[in-house]
């Protein structure tokens, strides 16, 4: 049984019927994925559920410890490079939030295991690389998830809807952590344009 709270399904722990599930929040950079993750986690906390938020250890763009959005909203978290490292702690909680899920090597196995044990797992992640290729672990998670949404950002060049992430620099590595100094959210048309052509 679930309680509905502003579009977020809350497991009804009062009668012992907890059904785990996976919620997947996708989108390009600057689309509000982390904001949505924090919003959902806070609502579960209001429902008196035990919540754990996990952040990628190498992501220290805004805060070394907390999960922090681009506009500096934050929530306390624990850091990890692999989710298996926090599994014992996760088992003490009802709801587990994972930020930057594309960077963890074991996101799929961890989320599936936790959900099958009766926990709610919320994963916020990029669905595609700066080359518009899928993050394999996230694409594998889609058919295992009960809820999947893809958010859009605002194109930083023409200000229309943006579904893609464009890298500004010349780095070729897949994992280059950064914010507006390294990436732009862009629409389909602007993805192929020079960032210098940004609309004034």
UniProtKB/TrEMBL annotation:
Catalytically driven reaction(s): thymidine + ATP = dTMP + ADP + H(+)
Top class in the EC scheme: transferase
Molecular functions (GO terms): ATP binding; identical protein binding; metal ion binding; thymidine kinase activity
Active site (catalytic residues): 100
Domain of life per record: Eukaryota
Binding-site residues, substrate: 183
PROSITE patterns: TK_CELLULAR_TYPE
E.C. no: 2.7.1.21
GO biological process, one term: thymidine metabolic process
Alphabetized InterPro entries for the sequence: P-loop_NTPase (IPR027417), Thymidine_kinase (IPR001267), Thymidine_kinase_CS (IPR020633)
Keywords on record: ATP-binding, DNA synthesis, Kinase, Metal-binding, Nucleotide-binding, Transferase, Zinc
Family membership noted in the UniProt record: Belongs to the thymidine kinase family.
Record text on subunit structure and interactions: Homotetramer. Tetramerization from dimerization is induced by ATP and increases catalytic efficiency due to a high affinity for thymidine. Interacts (via the KEN box) with FZR1.
Name of the protein in its database record: Thymidine kinase
Species of the source: Varroa destructor
């Amino acid at each position: 049984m679930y309680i509905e709270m502003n579009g977020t399904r809350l497991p009804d722990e009062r009668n012992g019927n907890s059904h785990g599930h996976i919620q997947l929040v996708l989108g390009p950079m600057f689309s509000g994925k982390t904001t949505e993750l924090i919003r959902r986690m806070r609502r579960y906390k209001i429902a008196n559920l035990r919540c754990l938020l996990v952040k990628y250890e190498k992501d220290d763009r805004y805060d070394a410890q907390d999960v922090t959005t681009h506009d500096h909203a934050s929530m306390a978290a624990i850091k990890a490079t692999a989710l298996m490292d926090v599994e014992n702690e996760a088992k003490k909680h009802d709801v587990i939030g994972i930020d930057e899920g594309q960077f963890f090597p074991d996101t799929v196995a961890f989320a599936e295991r936790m959900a099958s044990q009766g926990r709610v797992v919320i994963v916020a992640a990029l669905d595609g690389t700066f080359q518009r290729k899928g993050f394999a672990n996230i694409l594998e998670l889609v058919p295992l998830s009960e809820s999947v949404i893809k958010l859009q950002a605002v194109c930083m060049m023409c200000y229309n809807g943006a579904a893609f992430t464009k890298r500004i620099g010349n780095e070729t590595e897949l994992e280059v952590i950064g914010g507006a100094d390294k990436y732009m959210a862009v629409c389909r048309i602007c993805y192929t344009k020079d960032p210098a052509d940004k609309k004034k």
